[in-house]
Amino acid sequence: MNAMTKIANTGADSAETEVRFPAEKILVSATDQRGVITCVSESFCEIAGYSSDELMGAPHKIVRHPDMPKGVFYLVWETLKAGRPICTYVKNQTKSGDYYWVLAVMTITENGFLSSRIKPEAELFEKTKKIYSTLLREEAQGLTPEQSAAKFKEMLAEEGFPNLEAYSGFALNAEFKSRNIISPELAQSFASMDDLELLIRDMQNLVDNIEQGFERVRGEPVNLRILAGRLEGAGAALGTISQNYDAMAKEMHGLVGRLHDPETGALQQMYKAVVYGRSTLQTSQLFDEAFKAAQAQENQSEADARMLQEHGEKLQSLCRSRIIEISSIGKSIPDICRSLRRRINGLDVVKLLCKVESGRMRDVDSGLDGIIARLENFHDNTDRHLAELSGKASQVTQKGATI
């Protein structure tokens, strides 16, 4: 198989040619903390068109293409310096002035940074190129790198990615699967993590349904107070019932917040953990593939090959720790569900008091029966959703134990 192919660019710069390479190739480089290259793979040299001697000791921006938005690199370095990995699409320039696109997965090492790059093919790649084009135009009109970085995150949010981590995880997962190259020993782990993600999404849908139920009955205590005022003395008991229901519902709503809060909620923490765990395991496989390729190359130093192996093993360990975190959080959810169901029972008592009052006011067209029907529907649906949520949380704990 040819190592790479060149495809003429039919755009504005027809002299520029795109270099493409097979999906199985992984382009690896390492830098120190200043961004100076300390290690390059044979594949990286081959596609970039440089010798290893030319690249070693050079700043990594030697392969930077001018068509890359400055705001993207601003985010890359901001994220890496904060100690977090990042994954994004990058257009690089070869020594001859041609270009090649990669999905770059960048991680932190003890001495600097390590990056593995694979061929991009997923649908998100095309969307990202359009975003980059917009950023380049606005940078040309005076947008600073920091402003461009903020604009990039805004545009990602419009595509459904609430933060950079969500975008990175989605991009890596999409491109990793498009390669269709999965290590047999990791296949079951990847399948289990996909199952975990689906379970967590199902749980989020259940909590969303509970939240929507709260929204639908939020005004019922107010309706009870209005009714109590209209009935004057005859409605005094309804006013008290309304206050009790409102207080208990607010307490219950706070408990639901422990599950679905977008920053600190248990489900969000579980989702972040499974995305991070899967990404680290995928990155680990890429470095393992690069390590095996380095072993087969006579000019690859033993120290560089060992670094790839050790970093891959470190990433696998990080993956395991995040999966343990998911299982731990999953164990707490049934307890929250039980607390919520106890409060539903308390709300049922208040609902029964409403029924008693409805019986006493049988001759009055109060509208109380409609309120009771809506509360009953809310209680029944919430109780059913909580039972399903607790069951799926137990499945998450069991599934996490198999990875």
Report on the architecture of this protein:
The chain has 403 residues and is of the alpha+beta class. The chain has two domains: 175 residues, Beta-Lactamase, CATH 3.30.450; 217 residues, no CATH class. Helix content is 65%, strand content 11%. It has twelve helices and seven strands. A five-stranded antiparallel beta sheet has the order 4-3-7-6-5, sandwiched between helices. Strands 1-2 form a two-stranded antiparallel ribbon. Helix 9 runs antiparallel to helix 11 and helix 10 runs antiparallel to helix 11.
The helix tally amounts to 12
Total number of β-strand segments? Answer: 7
Structural class: alpha+beta
Query: Which percent bin holds the helix content?
Result: 55-70%
Sheet with most strands: strand arrangement:
4-3-7-6-5
β-strand percent reads: 5-15%
The topology string of helices and strands comes to: EEEEHHHEEEHHHHHHHHH
Secondary-structure blueprint:
Elements: E1 5-8, E2 17-20, E3 27-32, E4 37-40, H1 42-48, H2 52-55, H3 70-81, E5 86-93, E6 99-108, E7 112-118, H4 123-140, H5 145-158, H6 164-179, H7 187-217, H8 220-231, H9 236-260, H10 266-295, H11 302-360, H12 368-400
Antiparallel strand pairs: 1-2, 3-4, 3-7, 5-6, 6-7
Helix pairs in contact: 3-5, 4-5, 6-10, 7-9, 7-10, 7-12, 8-9, 9-11, 10-11, 11-12
Task: Describe, in short, the structure shown.
The chain folds into two domains: 5-179, Beta-Lactamase (2-Layer Sandwich); 184-400, no CATH class. A hairpin with an 8-residue loop joins strand 1 (5-8) and strand 2 (17-20). It is α+β, with helices and mostly antiparallel strands and 403 residues long.
